[in-house]
Design brief:
2 copies of one chain form a homodimer. Chain A is mainly β. Chain A is built from no helices and 10 strands.
């Protein structure tokens, strides 16, 4: 069957691919930790990008965080990111893209009854050449918006 | 590397696998439609289940809806489901599991600025033998909670 396909949003196509690298997590309530990470961004034939991410401990490879969701471009050049986390958190992030730089902040966060209370998240994503860098700031468990994660990943061969 | 792994939640393990089948969608604002569907539920080495779903048109195979997220079991025998939709919607669903029957209702729904307004969703999922059936009721775009989706899928060989 010749399946009809709609192109991915042009303004976000620099995110497409598989990215791998390492990051550092820190927060006032935990010990600073390093992690390995893989990010996948792909096109499903619809006008958005699918996204999944997983991280692992550098010492024994045990799985740490993961998250999944979708990137959307808005008609006025904005960006929307919807995410689900296995920690029982969902996020709506909205923001802008300029060139290959994305600036996002949460406009809604909801959690399950048993989840830790996350209040706000901000994400900066920058792609330069074959390198993707991001930073995440988080307000959660009584701590105001504070730097939480930074990582550098490289685009992997297809 | 011998990667440490935590088992999946025992009370939800009947959902594990790849499921494929067909469904019917209806809603007061749209024409009734039939769709093909694949659901994947898998264990990542952490105490939850990862979930992805995609549907397609039966006539030409074009992609229709998709959604991704995670299933969590709570200590008191409850179920939590967090989902992201490429339509710009995120959901927190909470409910109960009895045997292989899950009853969920949305406790939080959030949408991006450009998304259609979804107010509530309820999901029934029942596994009998190798068959998974679900029904979804939705309140959205001014319509109160109304039957929206029903599908029957079969567990696929590994």
């Amino acid at each position: 069957m010749n399946v009809p396909s709609v192109p991915p949003p042009a303004g976000l196509s620099f995110l497409l691919g598989t990215w791998a690298g390492e990051g550092v997590g820190e927060y006032p309530t935990i010990e600073t930790f390093r992690y390995g990470e893989e990010i996948r961004v792909w096109h499903t034939g619809k006008p958005f990008l699918a996204y999944s991410q997983r991280t692992w401990a550098l010492d024994d490879g045990r799985p740490l965080h993961s998250e999944v969701g979708y990137w959307r471009a808005t008609p006025d050049g904005g960006v929307e990111l919807v995410l689900a986390h296995p920690t029982g958190v969902v996020e709506v992030q909205e923001g802008e893209v300029a060139g290959q730089a994305v600036r996002l902040r949460s406009t809604s966060i909801a959690t399950t009854a048993t989840a830790k209370h996350v209040v706000a998240l901000e994400r900066d994503v920058d792609v330069v050449g074959e390198q993707l860098r991001y930073a995440v700031r988080m307000a959660a468990v009584g701590v105001p918006l504070t730097h939480h994660l930074a990582a550098t990943l490289r685009r992997q061969p297809e």
